[in-house]
Amino acid sequence: MIRKISGGVTAARGFSAACCAAGIKYQGRTDMAMIYSDTPCAVAGTFTSNKVKAAPVLWDRQIVESGCTVQAVVVNAGIANAATGKAGMDLCEATATYTGKTFGIPASSVLLGSTGVIGPNIPLDRITSGVSMMKEMLSSTQEAGTAASKAIMTTDTVNKEFAVAFDLPAADGSGTVTVHLGGMSKGSGMIHPDMCTMLGYVTTDCAVSKELLVKALRSVVPDTFNMITVDGDTSTNDTLLLLANGQAGNKAIVAEDESYALFCEALLSVCHDLAVLMASDGEGATHLVEMRVYHADTKENARIFAKSVVGSSLVKAMIFGRDANCGRILCALGYAGPDFDPAVIELFLHGENETLCFYRDGFVQPFSEEKAAAILAEKAVRFSCDMKMGTAEATAWGCDLTHEYVTINGDYRS
Amino acid sequence: MIRKISGGVTAARGFSAACCAAGIKYQGRTDMAMIYSDTPCAVAGTFTSNKVKAAPVLWDRQIVESGCTVQAVVVNAGIANAATGKAGMDLCEATATYTGKTFGIPASSVLLGSTGVIGPNIPLDRITSGVSMMKEMLSSTQEAGTAASKAIMTTDTVNKEFAVAFDLPAADGSGTVTVHLGGMSKGSGMIHPDMCTMLGYVTTDCAVSKELLVKALRSVVPDTFNMITVDGDTSTNDTLLLLANGQAGNKAIVAEDESYALFCEALLSVCHDLAVLMASDGEGATHLVEMRVYHADTKENARIFAKSVVGSSLVKAMIFGRDANCGRILCALGYAGPDFDPAVIELFLHGENETLCFYRDGFVQPFSEEKAAAILAEKAVRFSCDMKMGTAEATAWGCDLTHEYVTINGDYRS
What domains does chain A contain, in order, with CATH numbers? Predict the structure, then answer.
């Protein structure tokens, strides 16, 4: 059984975290964070599908694919190292080399992340002095993990961390041991993950083979981070990393058995919670929007339909205005791409205590405007669509489009 | 030579127009329009690619594909007949039958258009009394065409009409005759045409075969109406119709000769001007945004890159805020889809009097913030990208994302 516990990246044994105010761009707040494992970790990762891949993405991907173990992740916020040429990679190499020397580990075991305004160069000296500062502050406490999750925020309004615990057979055959898995993420704008989200870091003390770590991550991402959208803009820096140091003492997971299934369930739980919280905390958002599509012909089509609805600017604006202009949901399903029969589908709006059917038999149905307004006033606005085609289903999450989103992004750099 | 002239759908010989206040939804303004040709017209049309096709789209498409000639177009604004079932088609049939009887023409020569809020049913009696009223008011004056272009507006802030004249060889061999081509369109939100725009009507007195009329329309749409976006939402009602009654007395165009080329050029001119004005008048827009992509490998990829940039919420918001956060242009090119090399492309911001290069050699370049702010204060903001891959090019148009867009669409139905 998966048990939710408090904490984030330091919930798992052997992981510590730190953060500092390196003064890269922001004043009066922390803007660098690191995660450190006192023993080497197996690692899996997924990265942006944007053709413009930031240097840290290229750096991390190379390490993840090499099969090296890793021990540290260094992240900065404020200015994104999105450079695609040699200078961007030089900065990565210099940062990893300095961090490696500082901690007495290979540069190839240092992963990097960078988020903020795309463009201006990041001063290396601030990064290296940040790394030195953080070495002194590393701590395995829950507070250290929480502080790190705050240091990587940009326009996020809340930090994002979740953790779970579950039991697996012990390595020595003596009953079970408790395994921990926790993560943090950030992302509020330029969120339309297409492999993974902006920046997400999940740590676990589970003993699990690299191969199955990769497989587990790939199995949960399509239904979690890849099912959220804030504005349809897929970032150049999207990165999701999963580090496992094996310190829980469980019998190592090397096959797709019951333990693997439980591990996947734990990973799904944390990734789901992080992803939904990111959608809910989209730039300027006042509502979380959920769209569930069921009885679709294929899983892939269910995902496409659900994402089309939560990505529609008109649906997003109507939810901000709490206006039940539900024809827009139908319209967004229609231009999603896959075929369906508009004459048979049914569309619902779900409140805490009531469900309204607003489209059926090819027509927008009459509904109580009063009831609809009450449901649209809830913090989470949930729609569903019965496609009447098959058995597949998917859920996507987004947020409303608000004046505040425009204000934030009309003047992002200041 | 193509000469721009004033006017719209009544610029061509034999075409008249009318409008009236039918009281379908709006109060105190005209909300129905019609175009009428005193002789039968060949017709070409393109329609929405949305899987949910409104009944008027199905009605018109059936007529356009049947090879019938047409004489009338009846359009209503306020409530969109977006019904996809029998009731939607019943309303179309009743409207066309009534119009046919009123004018003494077949119901199959009556085309229909409908725009406004998707959903509630349209009262047939208001439509028929509108048709009767308009019969008494039909006029071939320029003013009647202009009034019709105003009656089909929804959230548009300006009416949209353009016309041109050009000379073609006379049918009787006696020198040349003047041919006219003019059009009107409407569309401000739910604009992301994917075959054509929301509602556009072009009339001409040119004598041209149905086959070449269709071919000419297909040749100009991909670079005009299909290259604009306001919000990425492809409407269920998009319709573009081109009617030709042959009254100019030119030698009929039946082959792809010089006359056909001139006709295409005239059609391109009017469609381009209507499309760009629609982008510029996008809901809440304060700026027109233009993205030109050149030296691309293929025309199709050039179009994809250009549309990705003008469709990006983050690019749109930054233009509203006049903030030269130009990394977002690079990001939007990156997630467009086709391959390119970010290390070699060059990106420019073009002002009336000055051009700034803001990305080159894989880096965001330093530029004068003062100059950039001055350029971003211009009404039309123009970007370009040299892909350094080939010889293809394309231009897309959009608008900025503003508080006003959110306000309009948060409360569209009231």
Answer: 3-277 (3.60.70.12), 288-410 (3.10.20.340)
